[in-house]
What does this fold into?
Amino acid sequence: MNEVSRLHFAHLPTPIEELPRLSDHLAGPRILVKRDDQTGLAFGGNKTRKLEFLVAEALEQGARTLISGGAIQSNHCRQTAAAAARFGLECILVLTGEMPAQPSANLLLDELFGAKIVHVPDRKDRDRILQETFDAAAAEGRKPYLVPYGGSSPTGALGYAFAMEEFMRQNVHADWIVFGTSSGGTHAGLVLGQRVFGFKGKVLGISIDESEEWLKTHVSKLASEASERLGERIEFTPAEVLANADYCKAGYGVLTDAEREAVKLFARYEGLLLDPVYTGRAAAGMIDLIRKGFFRKDETVLFWHTGGQPALFADKYVNEI
It folds into this structure.
C-alpha cells in the first residue's frame, strides 16, 4: 500500500458503544454506535477524518488559504475553519442559504475561528461564486487550496477508508453499518475500506438529499479514484454501492416528524444527541427500516454517528425539534 500524506489531529480511535435501551424500545436488532461525533476538532464530526488528509495535501502544495463551501449551518465548513485556524491558514467559506440576523451554532463557530464568510443567497450561484472566490484569492497571492464540498474528493475519502481499518481493529462484530450520505466522501471511503480491509458486513448509506442513482454512480466513481491513492486502482461499480433515498424527499435541512422522533429517541433512551439534518435523518431511516423488518432481529446494526450536534442550536431548528 502506498504511503499517503496525513496529519494526525483527530481523537482516534472513536469509541463504539451499545444502545441497549433503544434496541429494546424498537424490538429490533442489536444497535451499536460509532462515535465520530467525538473526533475532537471543533465539537468533532466525520469531516475531521477527511481533513487530516486534505490539510496535509494543502500544506504540501504550499497553500496559505483554505477555501470551501456549504450551507449556512455546514458542519464541514465549521471543521474546515477550525483546521485552518489550527495550522495557521486563512479560511474563506462560501455559504448558501438564508443568513440569520445573528450568527448561531455552526455559523457562529465559523466566525469565531476567523473564517471570512462569502454569502450566496441562491444555491444555483454557489459553484460559480466559489470558483470566483478561489480565482480572486489566487490572483491576490494568497495561495488557496480548494476543499471540495463535504471534503468529498479522492483525497478526503481516504479518511473513511482508514476509518474502516480502525473499526476492524476494534474487533466488534456488525452485520450492517448505517450512516448518512450526501456528498459521498464518507460513503466512498467506507466502500473502499470495506474492500481493502475485508469487512464482511454491508455498508448502507441513508441519503440526506441525493437520489439513489446519483449516489451509486458518484460513490462508486469516487471510491475507484480514491483507491489509486493507495496503490493499484480498484474499479467499483454502482451495483456494489448500497444506498437508500426513501427518506430525503422533504428536501435538505427540512425537518419532518421522522427526524424529530429520531432525535428525541436517541436523546431520551440513550442520552445521545443527533443533529437535525444529517444524523437525525439517517437515524430516522434506520428506525423506519427496523420497524419494517428490513434487518433481522439476530443481526447487529452499527450506526456510524457523523456528528453535527452544533446545528441543534441554530435558530432555524431550536423551535422545531
About this structure: The longest strand covers residues 65-71. The two ends are 46 Å apart (CA to CA).
